[in-house]
UniProtKB/TrEMBL annotation:
Family matches, as InterPro entries: Njmu-R1
Protein name (Swiss-Prot/TrEMBL): Uncharacterized protein
Any single GO CC term annotated in Swiss-Prot or TrEMBL for this entry: trans-Golgi network
Source species: Heterostelium pallidum (strain ATCC 26659 / Pp 5 / PN500)
Ranges where the record places region Disordered: 34-54, 184-241
Database matches in Pfam families: Njmu-R1 (PF15053)
Signal peptide: none
Length: 529
């Protein structure tokens, strides 16, 4: 497959790869400094959000969000310096959690703040995100009145009375830390730079004095041993003496490297402060229902990663609209994608199991993101995503997806969505296994949470059959009876072509390849009869 040009933007998908939305690039600058193309992309993105907003309003679950910022009692610049010198200092400083954006009610907001505060005091909030369950703090017993009073003081008020309508509901949430670098004012930057320069000068002088002192001590020691003013050559000749070696070992040639590292970190962060935002995405569901939001951990992590870019922008409208539609963007993409492909889902299932690459071209970036998220959910290997369209083009969005663990890719599946929402797919391969699972997906397309579980079951079923087939083939090397059992297993399987293909790519043993060729030849003869 041809290599992409160096102008393409690599957008990865796991921890080693990132998958930021286009909003991270088009909103990386403020609206006042945005170009005409960037403003067109912002307008197109806002229009796309309006479509998913209606879907979010019709959702039968009560979902909401709360974005908070951690603010210390001292100035931000002082807090940033404390972070560079000693990260433990901030734990002893007083702070408050202030609401930045939320669409939750007062009681929901207090419950979220109480939950985040309890995790924050225990250092249990991470940038990779976590899944949790929020309890109604207003229903706490009177025996915990002391803890309640402490929380009230940190939250800035007492908790409102709880409504009894949601007693049978449970609140599941995804919470994470978002660190955003923001520039400080000019005076603070100048003061910090001057302080760093002074520290560098002091450190340099200290190192110079230490070197001078060391040289003087060495010369004096050598002079005492020889009884004369020795030259440098005489000093080197006398270093074999036990007394000289003992004195040299006792000399302090060390330099305070830790101080220099602190100075370097101060230089790197000069003019910037790191603000800590805490985002909590919540949805209420019946207690009898299993919490399935943990299966969307990857999608929620990508969403929160992009929120960090939106926080930097001055377009608060897009930020609030994106946060309000988090459930539709992160979870309901499964329903939208299945509605779009319908019975062609079997083609996507077959191509994803075969480990093929994809080229996606759509006029709407949200449609492209839905397709990418769906392909990631049904693919066994991780997919690397590269955006190949120009950032200045707001009418066409192009992406390329490549499986990580596949060395050579012989087939590229092109997925094109026209302006009239017509789907064009150049792939025709499928089998009975993929058609069966296509019907399963279509029957459950109204429930996105169940669809995500079905995607995991689909991949697990393939992995189990592949492992079973691999063990049978390995045992067939010296046993013709097991070779015949392997043949019967393939005859009864409706996914034999995928199993053959995956085992060939994953095995370089000549004996195994010979067995696979024999089985494939026998299957072809069986089909011809």
């Amino acid at each position: 497959m041809s290599q992409l040009s160096s102008s393409t933007d690599n957008v990865g998908l796991s921890k080693s790869q990132e998958f930021p939305l286009s909003i991270s690039t088009m909103l990386g600058v403020s609206t006042t400094n945005a170009t005409a193309n960037q403003q067109q992309q912002q307008h197109a993105y806002t229009n796309s959000l309006s479509s998913v907003s209606e879907e979010n309003d019709n959702n039968n679950m009560n979902n909401y969000y709360c974005l908070m910022i951690k603010e210390y009692s001292s100035s931000p610049a002082d807090n940033n310096n404390n972070n560079n010198d000693n990260n433990n200092n901030n734990q002893n400083q007083s702070f408050t959690l202030n609401i930045v954006h939320t669409n939750a009610t007062n009681i929901q907001t207090h419950n979220i703040k109480s939950f985040i505060l309890s995790k924050l005091l225990k250092n249990l909030i991470f940038k990779r995100g976590s899944i949790g369950r929020i309890e109604d703090t207003s229903l706490a017993s009177s025996s915990n009145s002391l803890n309640t009073n402490v929380i009230d003081s940190l939250l800035g008020g007492s908790l409102p009375s709880s409504s009894s309508n949601n007693k049978n509901n449970e609140i599941s949430c995804y919470y994470t830390l978002i660190e955003v670098q923001e520039p400080t004012n000019t005076s603070t930057t100048t003061t910090t730079t001057t302080s760093i320069n002074n520290n560098l000068t002091t450190s340099s002088s200290s190192s110079s004095n230490t070197t001078t002192k060391t040289t003087t001590t060495t010369t004096t020691t050598t002079s005492d041993l020889t009884g004369t003013n020795s030259t440098s050559d005489d000093t080197l000749d006398n270093t074999n003496s036990p007394l000289v070696q003992t004195d040299i070992e006792n000399l302090d040639f060390s330099i305070n490297i830790n101080d220099n590292q602190i100075l370097l970190s101060e230089i790197e962060n000069c003019g910037n402060i790191i603000k800590e935002y805490y985002l909590c995405l919540c949805y209420e569901h019946p207690e009898s229902q299993v919490n399935n939001i943990d299966t969307f951990h990857l999608e929620l992590g990508d969403f929160c990663y992009d929120i960090g870019y939106l926080i930097k922008s001055s377009n608060q409208e897009i930020l609030t609209n994106t946060l309000s539609n988090w459930y539709s963007l992160c979870i309901n993409y499964l329903t939208r994608t299945i509605d779009m492909f319908n019975d062609k889902i079997s083609l996507l299932l077959h191509s994803s199991l075969s480990g093929y690459a994809y080229n996606i071209e759509t006029p709407n970036d949200l449609i492209a993101k839905d397709i990418i998220h769906f392909l990631r959910s049904i693919s066994i290997p991780n997919l690397t995503v590269i955006k190949t369209s120009s950032e200045s083009d707001s009418t066409l969005f192009k992406y390329e997806l490549n499986p990580e663990s596949v060395n050579s890719i012989d087939t590229i599946v092109n997925i094109t969505v026209t302006k009239e929402n017509t789907l064009i797919l150049n792939y025709k391969g499928t089998n009975g296994f993929c058609r069966k699972w296509c019907r399963i997906f279509l029957d459950a397309k109204a429930d996105s949470l169940r669809l995500r579980n079905l995607a995991e079951e689909f991949k697990l079923k393939v992995i189990q059959e592949l492992n079973h087939f691999r063990r049978m083939v390995d045992s067939s090397k010296n046993n013709n009876y097991l070779l015949y059992k392997s043949f019967l297993f393939l005859v009864g399987s409706d996914n034999s072509d995928i199993l053959f293909d995956l085992l060939k790519k994953d095995n370089d043993d000549p004996a195994v390849k010979e067995i696979l060729n024999i089985l494939q030849l026998q299957l072809q003869q069986q089909l011809q009869q």
